Amino acid sequence: MSLFDRVELAPADPILGLTEAFVADPRPEKVNLGVGVYLDENGKLPLLDCVRDAESRLAADPKPKGYLGIDGSPAYRDAVRSLVFGDGADVLADGRVATVQTLGGTGALKVGADLLRQINPSATVLISNPSWENHRALFTRAGFRVDSYRYYEPALHGIDIDGMLADLRSADAGTVVVLHACCHNPTGYDLTPEQWDQVIETVRDRELMPFLDMAYQGFGFGIEEDGAVVARFIESGLEFFLSTSFSKSFSLYGERVGSLSVVSESADAARRVLSQLKICIRTNYSNPPTHGAALVTAVLTDGALRRGWEQELAAMRDRIKQLRRGLVGALEARGVTDMGFIAGQLGMFSYSGLTKQQMIALRTDYGIYGTDAGRMCVAALNTGNLGYVADAIAAVRS
Ligand code: PLP
């Protein structure tokens, strides 16, 4: 008799499980459109030049590997805060923001969820329908009841803003609302500035707690344009949580570099919040790793490296847009004329509108892996596989 006899075998992670199936697939023409990772024209994960240069500089001046503080590197935190709130923003000067370095965007969400659970344990968490799979799992695991608000409307190939606002309006005060700041995962549909204003007004009226998740800054319209939603929340005077990630924008997936900022009403509240965030971190993993944050800090604070990063990020963004247009064109050439909406979606993902059966057929008949819900990572297409993918979609649609 072992204690572990009672341990049930958990199902594979839905997205990472797809990758396992992809790796095991022997067909050379297979395409993995499952995970949210940007691949270059050769189907390879890029190492950005700015990161390579920053890495060379760090290697040329090696440092001892001491512990960082619980809340991470001060230089990194300053760099992130300038990036997301703006250099010298009043909210920073007023001391109203508590920022901690986290293990990617996921780590930021979890630290934020743990703090929220401590300060408002009976709150419900609302996520968009649909949302990134891990939102529900992570907030549930943190002890919350998780429900959803209406978001994607298949018939519109867009957002059901009236449904979303109605669901927010009927939420209890204190409800945590997880909002994708830009490049909504999985649909690729973002709120317009006017719709953000409506959401902010509703959040204020209903006294909800917004949790902005910004994992794709720079992949929509640009670094500033995508970050504008943060400025909107600051302007509104609301308190809110903000998680950010450099996994995608720096192609630093495995380095686990992110941040959590909590914007409070006063500097005193921010100090108390920071003290509690530090306890959440200390009792989980003590303090974050050094290397990835040092790379991001080096790039963000050096004029030439920063310009290089902005150009490389713009190139990734523009190439994804080109791939979207390329896919739409290739589909049209094969007689599929009703999928033009893919070109207008934002970020790495496309909600293709394909059914579960069609997605399964893509997988089993063609070795093309997307989620059952029809999500495809457009950022994993290239000129070599685009025609094959278009052939396969046209075939499963016929
Ligand atoms: N939030 C959303 C919406 C995401 O899509 C992702 C990653 O796919 C994350 C957060 C987590 O990012 P990270 O890999 O930095 O933990």
Automatic annotation (TrEMBL):
Extract the Gene3D superfamilies matched here. Answer: Aspartate Aminotransferase, domain 1, Type I PLP-dependent aspartate aminotransferase-like (Major domain)
From the record, what ranges are coiled-coil?
A: none
Q: What is its EC number?
A: 2.6.1.-
What residue stretches are annotated with the Aminotransferase class I/classII large domain? 29-393
From the Swiss-Prot or TrEMBL record, what is one GO molecular function term?
L-tyrosine-2-oxoglutarate transaminase activity
What is the main EC category here? transferase
Q: Name one GO biological process term.
A: L-phenylalanine biosynthetic process from chorismate via phenylpyruvate
Instruction: List the keywords (alphabetical).
Output: Aminotransferase, Pyridoxal phosphate, Transferase
Cofactors demanded by this protein: pyridoxal 5'-phosphate
Cite the CDD domains for this sequence: AAT_like (cd00609)
Q: Which GO terms describe its cellular component?
A: cytosol
Q: Does the keyword Transferase apply?
A: yes
| Subunit comment | Homodimer.
Q: Which family does it belong to?
A: Belongs to the class-I pyridoxal-phosphate-dependent aminotransferase family.
User: Per its record, how is this protein called by name?
Assistant: Aminotransferase
Q: Which organism is it from?
A: Tessaracoccus lapidicaptus
